[in-house]
Amino acid sequence: IYHDNFAQIKAARPKHHWAIVVDLRKCTGCQSCVVACKSENNIPVGSYRTWVDVGQIGRTVAAAAGDVVTDEGSYVQEVKVRNIPKLCNHCDNPPCVTVCPVKATFKRADGPVLVDPRLCIGCGTCVNACPYDARYLNPISHTADKCTLCVERIDAGLLPACVTTCVGRARVFGDLLDPESEVSQLLAHYPVQVRKPEVGTQPQVFYIGLDGELSTSDNSASERLVYTYAMN
Amino acid sequence: YVYPQRIESWPGVDVRYSVCRQCRSDCGLEARVFNNVLLKLDGNPYHPNSTEPQLPYAADPQEALGAKIPHSLCARGQAGAQTLYDPYRVLQPLKRTGPRGSGKFKTISWEQLVEETVKGGLLFKDVPGEEKRQVDGFAQLWNQGRGRFTPADPAHPDMGPQTNQLVAYWGRAEVGQNTFIQRFAAAFGSVNALPHVGICELNHHVATQQSLNGAVAMLKPDIANSEFVIWFGAGIYTANFPMQALARKIAAASSRGLKFVLVDVSATAGVAHADRFITVKPGGDGALAMGMVRWILENHRYDSRFLMNTTLKAAETQGEPNYANASYLVISDPSHPKAHKFARAADVGLAAAGSTDADKYVVIDAGGQPAVFDTVDQGLLWPQGDLEVKPTTVGGVSCLTAMQILCQTAQEHTLADYAKLAGVSSRVITDLAREFTSHGKKAVADFYRGPAMHTNGFYNGRSIMTLNFLIGNIDWVGGYMAGGGTADFMGTKPTSPFPLGKWPNQPKGVPNGAKISREGAFYEKTSYYKELEDKGRSPFPAKRPWYPFGFGIWHEIFGGIWDEYPYPAKIVYQHMGNPAYSAPPGMGGADDEKLPWFRMIKDLNKVPLFITDDIVLSETSMYADYIVPDSTFLEAWGALPGFPTTPTSVIGIRQPVVDPLMAKTKDGRPMCFETYYIDVAEKLGMPGFGKNAFMDGGSLHRREDFYLRMIANVAYDTGTYLQLDSQGLPAKMGPVPDATAAEMKSVASWQKQFGSVLTEAQWRKVAYVMARGGRFEDYGLAYLGEKPGWLTHRYGSAKNLLQIYNEAVGSTHNAISGEVFHGTGIALPQRTMKGRLLDNIDPSKEFNFHLTTYKLPIHTQSRTINDPWLLELLQENFIELNDADAQRLGIADGDWIRVASASYPRGITGRARSLPGVRPGVVTFTNSFGHWHYGSGTWQVDGQTLRGDDARNGGVRLNPLMRLDPDMQDASGWGTCLEDPVGGGASYFDTKVKISKL
Fold it and tell me: Alpha helices, DSSP H only, in B24-132?
C-alpha cells in the first residue's frame, strides 16, 4: 500500500489496475447504482459514496419557425437531459491520501484508494482535499468514508455493487493491465474524458461522452438538478 | 490489506430467487438472506428483465451465485427491503373503533376478524351513531349458497345475483394473487373481482386489443434490431414494461445507432439519448399520428402489397407473417340495419343465407369484382381508383373498404390543421412520417400512458397502432413484437397437472351478471336498454356509462357504488390499493373529505362494510372497517409472466424470501389476504376452498396449497418454451428436467412444511424452477422464425389479423351520448361524456395551463415513499412549468404558487420549478409525493396514539384538481373524473388550470 510516491506503483508491477469506465451513452439516470452502494455498504441516510447528477440544460426560445406551436406563438425548446454518475476517481495521484496526518488513507497497488477506519481520527482534511467531493465523514463512525470500489467484492472476483446493478450497463469495471478487458477495449476505441483533468490527480474513472459537467456549468440558471440535492 | 466487510458469498448467506413488485415490471430478484434476515436484493441472473443475455436455463445454480455479469435491479427494487422492514407495518388485524376516517382502531384476534365479517350484525355498536346499524356480512349475501341464485334486482335479473354485491377490487395484484381473488369471488358468486387498469393505462390496452385480436394488450418494439422508433408518451428509462429491460435495450441500441424520437409533453429521462424530442399539446398525439397517416397514404408510403392480402395464407405466400383487414368491405350506408359492420357474403348476395360462406367477409378482387375474402389472395384497397373514397355498391349495398374509411377519416383535416391540433409545425408531421416509412419493417411507433389517458385516448392509441399496420412491421425482427409468451400457470391444458380455474361442486353459470363498473358488457344488450327501447323511448343517456371494451375501471366501480347502479354494494373488499391517495383523478388525492371518493367511503348506506388488507395504514385503510394485515411482495407468492419487450418466453416465480412478519393464526399460517379468504370460505362452506377444493381432491387451507400447484403447472408446461434440438432448430421443451440433489435445496423448507401438496416427482420439477427463480427460454431462441426476418414467437402464428377497421367498436354506442364510435383511428379533441368540447367549458382565456403528470425512476405510485433510500434522493417534488412561462409570470424557482381548476377552485399550493423540457402552456408534477398517511401522521390503536414519520409527506399532489366530468355530476356535486367513452380509462391529462403566484 502507498501513502505517497504513487509513481512507484508501476515499478512494483502490480497484478491488476482496476478502473471504471462510465459510458454516458448508456446511463439512464435511474439511481440504481446509488441505492446499490447504500445497500451493499450500509451507508447512512444522507451520505453517498456515489451519486448520479440528473439535470436538464437549456431554455425555451421564441422562434417564428419553431416546432412547438401554441396559441401564444411558436418556440424552440433547446433542452438536453444529462445523467452523470459520480464517484471517487481512485486517482493515480490522490491528493486526499497525501494530506492525511495519520496515514489512515492510502492507495492500494491495484488501484483502490481506501481508508483504514481503525486509524482515521476524523479530522476531515482528506474530505476537503478531494476535488470531486467524493469523501464524507461518516456520521456514525465519525471517520472519513468513501467509495472502496467494493474492494472486498472485487477481491472475491465479483463486480462492484454499482456495476452489478447498473440498469443501462453504463458502468464497466475491469483491469487496465489486461488489454482484452472491456475497460481496456473501451479506452482503446472511444475518446474518454476524466473529471477536472486540470488538477492533475490522474483519475481512474473514465467517461465516454462527458462534454462539460452539470455541477461546474457556468450558467447555473440553465441547469436543473433533479436528484440527490434538494433545491434551495 | 483487505477491507473488513462481509460479501454476499459469506458462509451462511442463502440466495433465494423471487420476483420484485416495487413496480409492475416483475423483475427477477436474487435475495441474500442470513438467519432469516433479508440482507440485500439484486437481480436474478436467469431472468431476462435483469440480465442480458441471461444465463442459459440449464446453467447450474452454483454458477449463478458468482456470476461475473451485471444482473441489475433498479433503485426502487433494491429499496424493497425497506418496504418489508417498514417500522409502521400493520401486522395484526385491526377494527375501526371511531367513525370512518377517524384513525381509531383496536387490535382484534384473527378469529374475531373472520367471525364478525362473515356473520355481520351490530358490528359497530360502540361507535357513536352506529349503535343500531345492522351490517350484512358474507353469510347474509351467501345465504347458505342460495345468494348465488337470487337476483340482486328482480326487475333486472340480467344484472346477476345478490352475491355480486361483494365488490372486490385491487390496486396491485398480479398473476397468482389476482387469480386467488378471482377464485374467491367466483366461488362466492360475484363477478366483481376487478383490477385497477382504468386509472393506469387502460386506453392503451383497449386501443391495442381493438387494433389486434381483442385479446393481446401490448406489443413492444424489437429494440435490439429496430432502426427507428417513435415513443409517444411512454416513460422509457423511468417506468413502463419492464423498466429495466426497456431502458437497457434502448441505451444499448441507441449507442449502436438506433434512432429514436420521444413525443411527450415534458422531457423525461429518455431525452438524454433521444435523437429528437418533440412536445405536443396534451392529447394531441392522435392528431400527430393521423396527420402522419394522411401523409403516408397520400404519398403512397404504405405497404400496399402487405395490406392487400386477404388471409394469413395469402400473406405467408408473400413472406408476410400476418395480415390485415384493409381490403374488407364495410357497410357504409348508415340506414342499413348492419351499418358500420363488415359486409358478409349473405348481406350482398354473394352467398345464400345459411350457406357456409354466408358469414364470410367480402372484398373486391383484382378484376374489380366482389368476392368472398378467402377465395382470392388479394383485395383492392381502392376499388374506385387510387385514394378514391367513393363507395362501391355490391348487391345493392353501398360499401367502403376498411382502407377507404381510414383514408376518409384521415382526410377530415389538412396537414396544417393536424399540426395545429397537435401543437407542432407541419414539418414535424412530414419529417416523422417520411423517416418512419424509410426503414422497411424496422421502424415502430409505440405508445403508452401519455397519449392514452385522455378522453380521446382510445382513438389516439388506435391512430398510433395504425401507423404500424401501414408499414406491416408486426412480427418482424426490428419491428413491433408480441413477445415470447408465458407458461400455462393456471393449467388450462389437458397436459397440466392442476386445472386451477376449476374446482369441484362449482355450479354452472356462477358467477354471472353485470359488473358494478359495467365493464365487459354492451349496454345495447342489457334489460335497461331493451326496456326503454320497448317503450319507444331513447335508451340514451344510460344512468352511467357501459364499457364493453374496458376492464378494471376504478372510477366506475366507485360511481356504480355511489349510484347503486346496476345494484347497491354490500361488502367492499380492497386488496393492495390506495384510491384515497392515488386515484381516480379528481375524486381523491388530498386530505379533503369533500372529494368524491371520501364522500362515497364515508357513506355507511352506500358502503355498509369496507374491508381492506394493507401493509401499513395508508390514506385509504384509515377509512377501513377492518384491516387484514397483508404480506409485502417479499413475503408473498406469485407467478409473473414477462412482457413483449422480451422476445423469449418468461415466467418468474415469487416466493416468500423471509418468514412473513405478520402475526400467525393459531395453526401457524401467516395472516394475509389469502388466509383470510380461505377462512371466510371455509366458514361459509364455499366450494373451491377447504376440503376437496381442487380437481385432484386436495384441500385448500394454506395459501401454498394453491401456489405450489401453480408452480407445478409452470414446471410441466409443454407449449411455450423452446430449446434447440439436435439439429439446432427450435423445438418444444416440454416439462423442465428433474432437479439435482443440490437444486432440491431450493424447495427444502417448502417441502418440509407442505410436502403432501405435490408428489415427489412434481417436487423435483418444481425445485428445478425454484432454483432458477422461474422458467425462462434461452436468449438465442428469439430470432429463429421460419422465414427470413421473422421473429420466433409471433402474433400472426395464431391466425391473428390486424384491424385497420374494427366493426365491434364501429357499431357500439357511447351509452351516455348515444353517439356511435368510430371503427378506425381518428383525431378528436378532448370532450365530456356527452361530447361537449372541454375547451368550451373551461375557456383557455381563464384556464391557460394544461395539467399533466409524469413518473420518476425511483418511485411507484402510492407505495414507495416509505423507503428511506428513495426518499432521501428527493424529499419533495415541485410544480413544474416551462422556463419561458415562468419568466413571463415572474415565477422564480422555489416560489410558492397556487394551481386551481374549475372543479377544484380552491386549488393546491406548492413550490414551483421551471424546466426547459416542459412544454409551454403545460404544468406538471411527478407523482408519489404529497402523502398524508402511509406510515405518517397520527392514528390510534387500542387507545394509544401512534405517530408515523412525517418526512414521508413532502411535496405536492395535484390530483384533486383533475377535472370531474360536468356531464356526470349529480345534484349534490358528486361526480366522476373525465373518462374515455370507448376505453373507459380515466383522464389524467385533460384538465385546464390557472396558476397564480402567492
Answer: 61-65, 75-78, 80-84, 110-119
Answer whether residue A62 is part of any domain: no
**Whole-Å CA distances, B768 to A66, A135, B664, B762:** 59, 45, 29, 10
> Which chain A residue is nearest to residue B42, measuring alpha carbons?
A165
The answer to whether residue A35 neighbours chain B at the CB level (below 8 Å) is yes
Using a CB-CB cut-off of 8 Å, the residues of chain A touching B420 are 69
Which residues on neighbouring strands pair with residue B507, listed in sequence order?
none
Q: Residue A165: its chain B contacts at CB < 8 A?
A: 42-43, 70-73, 78
CA-based nearest residue to B224, from B525, B647, B750, B730 = B647
In a domain, residue A47? The reply is yes
Torsion sign (Cα): B494, B495, B501, B503: positive
C-alpha cell at B723: 430449446
Query: From the candidates B41, B256, B869, which should be mutated to test the interface with A, based on the most A CB atoms within 10 A?
Result: B869
Helix (H, G, I), strand (E, B) or coil at A50: strand
Which residues 745-774 in chain B show a CB within 8 A of chain A?
A: none
Counted domains in chain A: 1
Looking up cell 376437496 gives B692
- Closest residue in chain A to residue B30, using alpha carbons only: A165
Confidence band for A219, pLDDT divided at 50, 70 and 90:
very low
HSE-up (13 A, CA, CB side) for residue A86: 20
Instruction: Give the integer Cα–Cα distance in Å for B244 and B260.
Output: 18
Q: Is residue A76 part of a domain?
A: no
The pLDDT confidence band at residue B583, using thresholds 50, 70 and 90, is confident
Q: Is the peptide bond between A112 and the residue preceding it cis, with omega within 30 degrees of 0?
A: no
> What residue in B sits closest to A47 (Cα-Cα)?
B872
CB B378 within 8 A of CB B369: no
Cell of B817: 351520448
User: Using one digit for the tens of pLDDT, what is the confidence trace for B328-372?
Assistant: 999 999 999 999 999 999 999 999 999 999 999 999 999 999 999
Say yes or no: B530 contacts chain A, CB-CB below 8 A.
no
B892: closest chain A residue by CA:
A221
B772 by DSSP, 3-state: which?
coil
For B445-492, what is each residue's pLDDT tens digit?
999 999 999 999 999 999 999 999 999 999 999 999 999 999 999 999
Contact with chain A for residue B881, Cβ under 8 A: no
Residue numbers of the domain that contains A182? 8-54+84-212
Rounded CA-CA distance B104/B94 in Å is 10
Residue keyed to cell 435491479 = B73
CATH of the domain at A185: 3.30.70.20
A-chain residues near B917 (CB < 8 A): 56, 58, 77, 79, 81
CB contact (8 A) between residue B272 and residue A163: no
What tens digit of pLDDT does each residue of A88-120 get?
999 999 999 999 999 999 999 999 999 999 999
φ and ψ at residue B400, rounded to 5 degrees: -125, 150
User: Which CATH number is associated with domain B838-997?
Assistant: 2.40.40.20
Q: Name A114's bridge partners.
A: A106
- ipTM of the assembly? 0.96
Across A164-173, b (16+ Cβ under 10 Å) vs e yields bbbbbbbbbb
- B203-222 as b/e: b if 16+ CB within 10 A: bbbbbbbbbbeeebbbbbbb
Q: Indicate the SS3 state at residue B408.
A: helix
Q: Is B37 part of the contact surface with chain A (CB cutoff 8 Å)?
A: no
Q: Which residues of A touch B265 (CB under 8 A)?
A: none
Buried b (16+ CB within 10 A) or exposed e, B800-824: bbbbbbbbbbbbbbbbbbeeebbbb
Asked if residue A13 is part of any domain, the answer here is yes
Instruction: Note whether A151 contacts B254, CB cutoff 8 Å.
Output: no
A55: which strand partners?
A82, A225
